[in-house]
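Notebook B, p. 112. Complex prediction, attempt 2.
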Amino acid sequence: MSSYHAPGSRALLVERVADVLVPTTPAGAITAFGDGSGITVVGGGTVVTPLLTHGYLWPERALMLHAAGLDKIVDGGRLEVGAMTTLAEVAAIAPEPLASAARIPDYEIRGQGTVGGNISVGGDLQPALVALGAQVRSAGLGGERFEPIEDFLAAGGPRLVLSVAVPRPLGGVYLEQRRRHAHTYPVLTVAVARRGDGIHVAVGRQAERAVAVACRSVERALAGGATPAEAAAAVVEDVQTEDDALASAWYRRRLLPLLVARALTQLEGTR
Amino acid sequence: MKLIVNGQPRTVGGNALTPLLRVLREELGLVGAKAGCQHGSCGTCTVLVDGQPRRSCLLLLGSLDGAQITTVEGLGGPACLSDLQVAFNERYAAQCGFCTPGMLLAATALLRRKAGPVERDEVVDALGGHYCRCTGYVKIVDAVVAASRGELLGKMAVSTLEIRGAEL
């Protein structure tokens, strides 16, 4: 299918869509999602829309969440953000390292991309949420779940993200290896957070759509009194680096301890 | 589906999963928003949705019922250019012009947000998702900063545009 249709012609893909669901409550969204089989979820639309336009996705049923009431923010002892909260809103209210992670996309994408979508497609928020010890509320097969984001990411399967609970850390830093321009994914991202039980470290962007990894070896080294550089050297035990079009596994393996050490050093400066 | 496009109520057909860009260009005949990359990366399809700059290639019609859309056609014509458009013309901020609609709308939103002089880094942040493959970024930033400060050179720009329009 051509991605562009001359004036007067009709787009082919839209004729193929059998059913578009637009729930107006969270409960309606959960019911519409069901077990997630055979349904395409449209949150902010920044990921799904190009797939539709270019013919990579031909949904039989689509679930549009813009009116589902999943954009609530509760700012209590911890921050609870609905799945449809935009990255711009997160950048404005969230603690570090989450706020910086939400600023990675450009202005327009920040205003449209959502927390739920970002988590679901391996976006830049993942390592920040892992480092913060965030918990994800989701719906799908087996009913509703509320669990640590690491468990949520590990479980996989189609889930409808409803909200994310973000504890307030004592400090945080988010670093990315520079991209060549605004729309290139970062080569590597590192999030560190000082929490009540110590410093937590996570690495993201091992490749497009990769899942963030908690760096327990680094955390143990820090708890044992290691310096940032010493602890960061252990990150290669936690993270299996990967090749992709942006960078080689070799490059990432070289870069990773340096970026982790830099983040930990900066975290010391936030005391 | 009802939209308010450049101040005019419009009723549009199409499936809920039709991108706004396609509706604007093919159903409403508003071709100012360009079909560039069509995956949200280049910025030239940017329009204002309820006053906020958004990629029209990434927005699905089903999420927009009742929304107010402003395209570059709604900013002003040759005889009544906005200050930003005048600044773009005076400072040679448009070369091939393909990125210009998106640049203008994103910058218009910035100037409305700030409601006063803007710094260059603010412009760079606001336009960071917009490609100019002529690489005319310096003059684009110059124009936005100048427009924010009311530093317009005169009316010559308008007459130049009118002459060019007549030739075309």
